[in-house]
Every structure is written in C-alpha cells, then in structure tokens.
Write a structure and sequence with these properties.
Keywords: GTP-binding, Nucleotide-binding, Plasmid. Pfam families: Tubulin, TubZ_C. One of its GO terms (biological process) is cell division. By secondary structure, the protein is an alpha/beta fold. It has two domains: 17-222, Tubulin/FtsZ, GTPase domain (Rossmann fold, 3-Layer(aba) Sandwich); 245-360, 2-Layer Sandwich (60s Ribosomal Protein L30, Chain: A), CATH 3.30.1330.190. Helix content is 43%, strand content 18%. The chain has helices at 2-9, 25-36, 58-63, 86-95, 97-107, 124-138, 158-174, 186-196, 202-222, 237-244, 265-269, 273-280, 303-309, 312-325, 360-382, 406-410, 427-433; strands at residues 19-24, 50-57, 72-79, 113-119, 145-151, 180-185, 228-230, 248-257, 294-302, 334-339, 347-356. An eleven-stranded mixed sheet has the order 3-2-1-4-5-6-8-11-9-10-7, with helices on both faces. Helix 4 (86-95) packs parallel to helix 6 (124-138), helix 5 (97-107) packs across helix 6 (124-138) and helix 7 crosses helix 15. The chain is globular, with a radius of gyration of 24 Å. It starts with a helix and ends with a helix. It binds guanosine-5'-triphosphate and magnesium ion.
Length: 435
C-alpha cells in the first residue's frame, strides 16, 4: 500500500475535480477536515479541496485541528451536541438551514462537486443529513453532490444502530435521485487497523481512518488525470464525473502486483485473484457487483512493463473478468496508463463500480439491531416488577415519542395538524423525502 501512495506522491499529479466537503457532526467533520487537509506540490494549488465543518457540539468542533487555512467551522444549535437524538440534530440544522445554505454557497463557489460527510449513528450528522441534501439541491448543487457515510461498528449499541439504519432506509428510498454514495465501513477499517497495530489507541485509529478515507478519495480523483494513457480507452475527467454522479453506491478497489509476477494475462486472472481483489475493496465490501451500471478499471505500469504486458491477450483477459463481474454495466472502460517513475516497477490496478445497491454489511447491521432488541425484550420480560400491582406506576409499552409536549402529557389532547409541518420548498426534494 505504501508503494501505491508513493507513486502518486512522486508524480506531478493533476486533479480531475475540485471536491468540497460538508462535514456534519463529529465524525463527519473529522473526515471532511482530513479530506480538505490533503496537500499537493502543485504550484498555486497546495490545498486543492475545501471543507465546511458543522456541528452542534462546540467542544468537538474546536477540537478538530486543520492545516488547510480555508476550512471553515460553524456551530449550530445549543453548542452542547444532540446526544445521539436524530430528531434534535435535524431540528437544530433546520433552524439554521438558511445560514448554512449561505455558508455553503460561499465556501464551495469554486467547487465542482460537494460531498456531504456524516458518521452514521449519532444525532447531529445522521439527523441533519437529509436536510443537508435539501441545502445542496436548493443552493446550486443539484446533481453536483454525493454522500460519504460511515457505517457503525457492530459493538456501538442499539441507539447508534437504530439511528444509522433509520436514515439509511430513507436515503435508500431516494437513492435514484441522488449522486453517488460512498460507504465507509468502520468495522472493516477497524479490523484492518487493529490487526496491524494491536497496541494503538482509539484516537490513533480514528485519525488513521480519517486520513485513509481522505487519501483514498484523493487517489481516486487523480489517478485518471495524472498519467499518460495508452491504448484505445482513455478514461477521462468527464467520464470520472459521470461515474461519481451515478445514483447508487460507489465501490472502489485498488491493488498492486509485482511486475515480475505478471508474465502473462493468465497470471492476472489466475484463480480469480483479480475478482477477489475487486470484491474486497478499500472502504467497504459485500456488494453485488452485477448491479453496477457503470464501472472503470485503470491499470498503471512503467514503460518496459507496459510494452510487455499491455497486449491483446492481457486486455481480453481483464475485460472478460470484468464482464463476468458486471455484465449489465453500460460503460466499462479498461484503460492503461504508463508512469515515468524509474524507481518503481509495480503494476497498479484501480477499479470503480457505480450504481450499486447497499452492501451485505447493512443487512448484518439490521440483524444485529434485531438481536439487541430481542435481548432487551427478554431482559424486561424476565425482570420481576416490584410495582406490578400498581398499574399506574409502570411505564406504558407504547413507543416512546420524543416529540411529546407538556400539553400532550397533561393538557388537552391535541392532535397534530398539517400546519405543524414545515411547508415543502422544493418540489423535487418533497417528492424524494415527502416533506
Ligand atoms: N471513521 C470515523 N468514524 C467516526 C469518527 N467519529 C465518529 N465516527 C462514527 O460516527 C458515528 C456517529 O458519531 P458522531 O459523528 O460523533 O455523532 P454526531 O453526528 O456528532 O452526533 P451527536 O454527538 O449525537 O450529536 C459513530 O457512531 C462512529 O461510528 C471518526 O473520526 N472517524
Ligand atoms: Mg457529536
């Protein structure tokens, strides 16, 4: 993996798109800040990305150190956080939606594409993500934004799981009208990190994961525009743009092979190695890649290796593997590039699949949520209630309503009227989310 990074660092890179990052909540802000802190040695473009960090918790927001002087921070709501309450997070965002919209316009005026970034599971980021979609659509970024969302680890508890799943369900229903969605499986990154660094602390893990996400996205953004294409397929910037604007989940894989091990096309496809590596991915896994509507594969080699490797047999072998993985994709260029760096001889593979459905991991989280709910139920039914005879003192089994008012509890019962709802401003948004 280090080599992979060094090839990008040692090369005169150029960017495909100028990305902006709207970070919401602590996880979202931390990841967005790391993304905007990516620096290049390109003249007059040391920090190619920008970020706006929004949180309801002042301490968490202050705590984020940024290198990029253009990154802006914005506190909304009480300054005390949303305490894992998504209704509260959403409400605080709504109250300040107008000034967030203004800040978005200002911060991202030179931006091609904005990523809304949230850590799914908390109150602020998860609560405000749908409203942030509204902000993008109503402030000039329709069809120019995507979502980056982390999936919680299994051990984060029922509230986090429920929050994450609730929002995922809403977003899943509207997915066909949105840009691409990148899912970062915290469990996957955590397992990888803890295996390699068993003595590290959790905060070291978090900063590792955030930098890892930032570098992966940057790599995705530069790999197609920084090297010389050879052969008939050049996957260019406009195709990259189409790819990340494709509705559905985006899956990204990359891996390296020693040039000396690649003596023929067969050695690549040998024992399904290419397929395994593509399936494994970088940020999340468990997709049905046959759902892909678009994909791109880029292969980088130095000159001597390229001369030897990039022949008909090789191209056919890769293309047929890719076709088996994603037979229904409408566009599937396999592009070859030559790099000039003489110190490296590896061959680099990059694969991006767009238009996917949610991965298996989400199904696992649903099962985990159900398991936790069952455990709570069992515990409750096993408990001897000392107040069993005093019916009026035991809490009712009705689902808890966070929206309950004093009047609901003690005053005249009043049912909610349509006027209580915020009027829909944008037809498209209203159609998608029903508000
Ligand atoms: N990869 C990564 N994930 C994070 C990080 N911080 C939090 N998360 C994930 O994001 C989820 C939501 O946590 P937060 O972002 O702290 O929640 P919040 O949006 O600030 O919401 P409240 O604190 O409840 O107002 C957590 O359950 C974690 O799974 C981070 O720095 N990196
Ligand atoms: Mg928070």
């Amino acid at each position: 993996m280090e080599n992979q990074r060094s090839i990008l660092k040692n090369t005169d890179i150029s960017l495909s798109l100028r990305f902006g990052f709207l970070g919401l909540g602590m996880g979202g802000s931390s990841i967005a800040a790391a993304c905007a802190d990516i620096s290049t040695n390109v003249q007059n473009n040391r920090f190619p990305y920008s970020a706006l960090l929004v949180n309801t918790n002042r301490i968490d927001l202050d705590k984020i150190d940024t290198i990029n002087p253009n990154t802006q921070k914005m506190i909304i709501g009480s300054g005390k956080g949303a305490g894992r309450n998504i209704k509260l997070g959403e409400q605080m965002y709504q109250e300040d939606a107008e000034i967030i919209g203004e800040a978005v316009q200002k911060q991202f005026s030179n931006t091609d594409f904005v990523w809304i970034v949230v850590g799914l599971g908390g109150g602020t980021g998860t609560g405000s993500v749908i409203e942030a979609i509204r902000t993008m659509m109503e402030n000039g970024f329709k069809k120019r934004f995507g979502l980056i969302m982390t999936l919680p680890r299994s051990s984060e508890g029922q509230t986090v799981l429920n929050n994450a799943l609730q929002r995922l369900q809403k977003i899943n229903g509207a997915m066909t009208a949105l840009g691409s969605i990148i899912l970062v499986d915290n469990q996957k990154l955590y397992s990888h990190f803890s295996k390699n660094q068993p003595t590290a602390t959790v905060s070291e893990y978090l900063s590792y994961s955030n930098n890892f996400i930032a570098e992966t996205l940057h790599e995705l953004n530069i790999v197609t525009s920084s090297f010389n294409p050879v052969g008939e397929n050049h996957f260019d910037v406009s195709e990259f743009e189409n790819l990340i604007k494709t509705p559905g989940v985006l899956h990204f894989a990359r891996f390296t092979s020693k040039a000396s091990e690649l003596d023929s096309a067969q050695s690549i496809s040998h024992a399904g190695r290419l397929k395994d590596q593509i399936n494994e991915g970088v940020l999340s896994e468990g997709y049905d890649l046959s759902d892909a509507t678009r994909l791109a594969v880029s292969i980088l080699a130095n000159k001597p290796t390229a001369n030897r490797l990039f022949n008909f047999e090789f191209v056919n072998a890769i293309e047929s593997e890719v076709n088996e993985l994603a037979p229904f994709a409408n566009e599937k260029p396999v592009a070859h590039y030559v790099y000039q760096n003489k110190d490296i001889s590896e061959v680099y593979f990059y694969a991006v699949f767009a238009g996917l459905k949610l991965p298996k991991r989400v199904g696992e989280l649903v099962q985990e949520g159900k398991r936790l709910a069952r455990m709570v139920e069992e515990k409750q039914s096993n408990e001897v209630d000392p107040f069993a005879d005093m019916e009026s003192l035991s809490p009712s089994n009705e689902q808890q309503d966070d929206d309950v008012s004093f009047d609901d509890l003690f005053g005249d019962k009043k049912t909610k009227t349509a006027d209580d709802k915020k009027p829909a401003k944008d037809d498209d948004f209203a159609r998608m989310f029903g508000n």
